[in-house]
Amino acid sequence: MPMVSKVFTPVDLQEMHIKNRVCRAAVNDYSGNFDGTVSKEQCRLYRELAKNQVGLFITGNFYVNKEGQLDATENDISEEICCLSAAELAHIVHQYEAKIVIQISHAGKKNKISKKNALKYSKIQNLSEECFKQIKRDFIKACIHCRKSGADGVQLHFGHGYLLSDILEHYEKGLEFAEELLAGIREKLPKYPVFVKVNSNISEKIYYGFGALCQKYFVTAIEISGSNFAEKTKEDHLYYLDKAIELKKICNVPMILTGGIRTIEDAAKVLGSGIEMVGMGRPFLCEPDLLLKWENQGSKCISCCKCFGLYQDEGYRCALEKGKEVW
Ligand SMILES: Cc1cc2nc3c(=O)[nH]c(=O)nc-3n(C[C@H](O)[C@H](O)[C@H](O)COP(=O)(O)O)c2cc1C
Ligand code: SF4
């Protein structure tokens, strides 16, 4: 079968069956309600993408505790009551036979709401043992809430300078922390699909060590990303393919590659290398119906990154959309 056709064939990530190989990577849509619940606007976004063939959704980040809230419109999954609201997204995508994974995170030093909290988490080495324990407890609790919401899985955000990536990459006991967290989740949820997203442009010792932990604790899929995707230009494609292939050689965990996939030929190249799925973020901001026309044209996204915060400031999602109706 030509690799281009493989894009629209089903895939099993461990026990999770997905109707095609395309994942909408986590994208903060800056549209949650101020009380942390899922908004009507978010439901509309997910329905629009689900209608247009996305096989697997990873939600924008949901915070696991108040100190880890990134911005005013981020969704909350810290309390059991949050399951009711998160369930709305699961309900929508399931109508289109797609799967949904809730991304959970702690903003750490990136907290835009409280300078005090941003400062507290900017110095990982100064955090107390009790604080590390509390972080683990909050992530484990959030995983349980994701399962209760009816989401098909949960993704731990270990990338992009959020707290888990800071701990993994910059704390001397980072791998130990990650192991305790994964073990704690598996103790409570032995079978629930658990995904991780990780930066690949980190020290090899940490990158490969983390891959080994994912295998040991039956992680459902590793999403390979990097901290520098926003520095790439329109000409750059497949930012982290080489790093994903390297990890694949020694790690028997399904993988999703995200970053700079713009054409169906890019996707074919990824799948041809043995990576199970492709993830896209910005291309779906540009064109929610991209998959319907992908065989004939690549994404229009020019990787300018103006979409960060654009919706909050201007009321539309992509710089190329100016003057058009907001989707
Ligand atoms: C506006 C915007 C918001 C994003 N929000 C998140 C997020 O909440 N969680 C996350 O892991 N990545 C987030 N990302 C990163 C994307 O998931 C993806 O890794 C990155 O955009 C590179 O993929 P792409 O080239 O397909 O866009 C965001 C990216 C953009 C542009
Ligand atoms: S604003 Fe720029 S980077 Fe973002 S989706 Fe549009 S073209 Fe792509």
Task: Give me some keywords for this one.
alpha/beta; 8-stranded parallel beta barrel; two-stranded antiparallel ribbon; 38% helix; binds flavin mononucleotide
The main sheet orders its strands as 3-4-7-8-9-10-11-12
CATH class: Alpha Beta
Q: What ligands does this structure carry?
A: flavin mononucleotide, iron/sulfur cluster
Q: If you average the pLDDT, what whole number results? A: 95
Task: Report the end-to-end length measured between terminal Cα atoms.
Answer: 35 Å
Full CATH superfamily name:
Aldolase class I
Rg, nearest Å:
18 Å
Largest sheet descriptor: 8 strands, parallel, barrel
What is the CATH topology?
A: TIM Barrel
Order of helices and strands: HEEEHEEEHEHHEHHEHEHEHEHHH
The appropriate CATH architecture is Alpha-Beta Barrel
Specify the structural class.
alpha/beta
**Total number of strands:** 12
The low-confidence runs, each spanning 5 or more residues with pLDDT under 50, are none
Strand content range: 5-15%
If you had to describe this structure to a student in words, what would you say it looks like?
By secondary structure, the chain is α/β, with parallel strands linked by helices. The protein contains 13 helices and twelve strands. The model has no long low-confidence stretch (mean pLDDT 95). It starts with a helix and ends in a 13-residue tail after the last helix. The chain is globular and about 55 Å long. The protein has an eight-stranded parallel β-barrel with strand order 3-4-7-8-9-10-11-12, surrounded by six helices. A two-stranded antiparallel ribbon has the order 1-2. Helix content is 38%, strand content 15%. It has a single domain, classed as TIM Barrel. The chain binds flavin mononucleotide and iron/sulfur cluster (SF4).
